[in-house]
Amino acid sequence: LVGKKKVMAPWVTTDAAWAVAGIFAWFSLLLTCYHIYRHLQHWSWPSQQKWIVRILFMVPIYALASWLSLRFFHLSIYFDTVRDVYEAFVIYNFLSLCFEYLGGESAIMSAIQGRSNKPSWWTCTCCIREFAYTPAFLRFCKQGTLQFCFVKPVMALIIIVLYANHDYDSGDLRPDGGYLYVAIVYNTSITVALFALMLFYAATSDLLSPYQPVLKFLIVKSVIFLSFWQGVALAIAEKINIITSTDSVQSGELATAYQNFLICIEMALASVLHLYAFPWRPYLHADGMRGRLTSSSSVSRNLKSTLNPTDMIDDTIRNFSRAYAHYVSQGDDDSLEDPSERPQLRISARRGDEGILLHTHQPHDHDHDH
Of the candidates 308, 282, 266, 87, which has an alpha carbon nearest to the alpha carbon of residue 189? Predict the structure, then answer.
């Protein structure tokens, strides 16, 4: 009788689960799209806001890809590929935003010159000897994040090829399968990227303090790094039968379904936290034009320039070039946007009662608050 008992499909693969996930996914998508639109409307500091908008796009991409994967789980590997490739882009953009906050490589080097890294377990440098901050240090931070931007797409393509040849099974740690080696390469690459971020923060935490770096760093790190380990844990849980599969769901797909369902919920939380970590209101009066909004055509143009990845390519060439030290010593061309769009103001920031307050300084004028 037990053998003839009908086995119910796991709840996470049902229409009800897809509907619940959809509520959270669409909430995060709509809220983040509104958040992005407000930044594009008040495009007063493009050299910072282009990085912010790119980071914000992580939420709708994660949410929509996960929601579609939950419905069409036989095609989830392709949706997940789009999501995973973008996460590499986010780490680079976050570090670039921090560089922009501090004025670029030459300004950062001037500020931290003479300092050195103190070995600490908190920065994962307890086993590394003390070293001085040099241009090579900044170069490593950029290279550490840029390598992930290129390793991740390559690994995503390899996963698709292995999956098509039935050589990739999530959670399968056997040495004759592809999952083990992909996980090793991927985890090594993302660890280097996050280690570079951690080192940079340790070197510049006091300089970044007006910009709430801890909240920003924790959100980016948790979404990317913790979601990866969440997926690994679920895949292993399915393999050791903590999560039981059925005949209607192939091996590895149930863990993926749980992963996608959880990401849909987590992105709703992330979209709310992004409002506090990357607010648009500080840019509302940063250009001294109270109440003045950007036209629809300008919003489209701002969005188009934000989605242009050529600056990442240029930065890769620059940071892997032998002439990097020369670039730093001669100063940076920190902003790759159109110079005509750059605010003709020098803007500084300080922490206020309601977050970050931006102050504009006109040439030869006294400082004033908006």
Answer: 87
